[in-house]
UniProtKB/TrEMBL annotation:
InterPro entries: Ig-like_fold, Ig_E-set, IPT_dom. It holds the Pfam family TIG. This is IPT/TIG domain-containing protein. Residues 25-94, 108-178 form the IPT/TIG domain.
Length: 239
């Protein structure tokens, strides 16, 4: 509290008590786990020790200047998505609070690979103890339970799929995050024909053979033999 006195030239005077109310602002007001949040406060005690609380848990301490102002930063702790109080309190029990909203976050590594590549998905800010489902395009490929802090991590193998981009979706029913995974589509080397030999004459029963080639992508191919250049008359087809 402060005493405000007014006096005129004839000696008349009056006084009132004025109370400074603490005020707190934060920047930003929303973000992800591990983001840095800056707290600015005014109206606290003169050079008083203050504690910053996030969801009632201490995350930082500081000291005000002689005007009762402060600026301090902290990292958003690991917890599930939602809106939480950020409270600043000094030793004289002056206090104020603001709200911070946490959004769920998730990572996918690697983001390119072949059929069978091991993919790792990790996330924070999901429902504590909730079931997190991973979809590859429209198919469920893995599930995990978030821990009490809303974090999880799991691995799965990239399923057989066409080359190009595929959507990996991470959801717990309330939160949903999507990433793109690119399936490698480089074809293997062209196999050289071994049988029948070039320019050779064949008997009625024909044997066909090619040299082996490797394709780590897991892609499969279809062999077609036709009697015309337009492949309209297929005489043999093998996967």
């Amino acid at each position: 509290k402060h005493r405000v006195v007014a006096q005129d030239a004839w000696g008349s005077w009056a006084e009132v008590n004025f109370k400074v109310i603490p005020s707190v602002t934060i920047e930003p007001e929303s973000g992800a786990i591990s983001d840095e949040v800056t707290v600015n406060g005014t109206g606290f005690g003169n050079q008083s020790r203050v504690t910053i609380y996030f969801n009632a848990n201490s995350v930082a301490t500081s000291k005000t200047d002689r005007h009762g102002s402060l600026e301090v930063s902290f990292e958003v702790p690991v917890t599930e998505a939602g809106t939480y109080d950020v409270e600043v309190k000094d030793r004289e029990d002056n206090k104020d609070k603001a709200e911070f909203t946490i959004a769920a976050g998730a990572n996918l590594t690697p983001t390119t690979g072949n059929v069978g590549t091991t993919l790792t998905v990790s996330g924070v800010g999901f429902k504590a103890g909730g079931t997190v489902t991973i979809k590859y395009d429209d198919a469920d490929v893995a599930t995990a339970n978030a821990n009490p802090s809303g974090a999880f991590s799991l691995t799965f193998k990239a399923p057989a799929s066409i080359g190009g981009s595929h959507t990996v979706t991470i959801t717990d029913g309330d939160n949903m995050i999507s990433h793109l995974f690119t399936m490698e589509s480089t074809p293997p080397p062209t196999p050289a024909p071994l049988l029948p030999e070039a320019s050779s004459k064949t008997e009625t029963e024909v044997y066909l053979d090619w040299e082996d080639v490797d394709d780590p992508s897991g892609v499969t191919y279809t062999l077609q033999i036709t009697s015309d250049d337009d492949f309209t008359s297929i005489v043999l087809e093998k996967e």
